[in-house]
Fold:
Amino acid sequence: MERDDLIHDNLYSLSANHDEEHGKAIRKKIWQVTAILTAITIVEVCTGAFIKQYYEGVANEFWWIIKWSFIILTVVKAAYIVLVFMHLGDERKNFKWVILGPYILFIAYLIFICLSEASYWNEVFNGPGSITP
Amino acid sequence: MAQHAENITKEELWGGNGSPFRISYGKQWMWMFLVSDALTFGSLLTAYGFARHQADAWPIGEETFNAMPFLGNGYPLLYVALMTFILIVSSVTMVLAVEAGHRLDKKGVTKWLLLTVVGGLFFVGSQAWEWYHFIHGTHYGSVLTADGWAVVDYVNEGKDLILKFGRGVIVDGAAAQSLFDGATATMQGANLIENEYAPEVPQYANFFFFITGFHGFHVFSGVVFNLIILINVIRGVYDKRGHFEMVEKVGLYWHFVDLVWVFVFTFFYLV
Structure:
């Protein structure tokens, strides 16, 4: 039986065996990305630990900036992991879209629908003229 | 990887003689599985967001998670930062194992894969401690006072009582003592029915247990997969096959587990 998990022609990614010289460049990239991911994590943890969301019961009015920077930094970290560590950046463009397109579409929809619905219920339970369940 | 030939015509690519993505069957379906698994985790985190947006108040990460093994309290987010770092490092050793596989360097693959397994076990162990601490709760528990729930603590070598109401509100001295004496209920730790971190939102602990538990189970299965592949590498299965693509496939799963943790870390501990 012909096995299609084996090397088909030299355009398949698994036949991308490389030599020592190529390996050196790839390893350099890996360590660079490691440094970036570590630096982002340190920044996140220091921000979370030292900047208070509330001080003596008073909300930090700039917290929304910090919250959004956390989310943006998380997406940056995720992009590095998926594109470099998981090598999606090295796959063909059609495959990248097959993986990322449907996922981003579904998740964006899910986040939108759930959070807007939850905000509505927050208004119902806690807003002005709210009902008590 | 980098040396994919791109000068291939559309007819050749989609002509049916091989994968139009030019990747192997196994790797493609590992990706498809990861997309579906990512939708599961995405749904869980979105459900968490639903509960959080609906609730009036939500516990603050740096106040809830501030303990270190052997050191006690007062180290906000430090322990979970350590866990995150362990998982990132094990992701790095995994990508180095994949790189060594591309050079058909069996010794290198063995070394890096073994380190990945060790990192994974460290992470699962850390999570066990985190759960133990979360279930056990604060040292003296919480009390329901006339002003609401508060965590009990003692300062100045255990002499002076203070009450922590969350959101940075701390009451001490005689006021704390009179509130403490008038307390009508006590609670310590967390379970599926109540938790002292968010007394008003009991589902907070349920989300914590379910999402970190589901992720922890993924890490555990990843360690098992890595071990199986490690045994195969040592036995020389992939030398005979001529490529180490199986390492790349379990590597994809392992990186995915790291990826999920990046999001869990943000939405449970930071934001």
Chain B has a mean pLDDT of 89. Chain B touches chain A through 79 residues (CB under 8 Å). The domain at 27-132+195-270 of chain B is CATH 1.20.120.80 (Four Helix Bundle (Hemerythrin (Met), subunit A)).
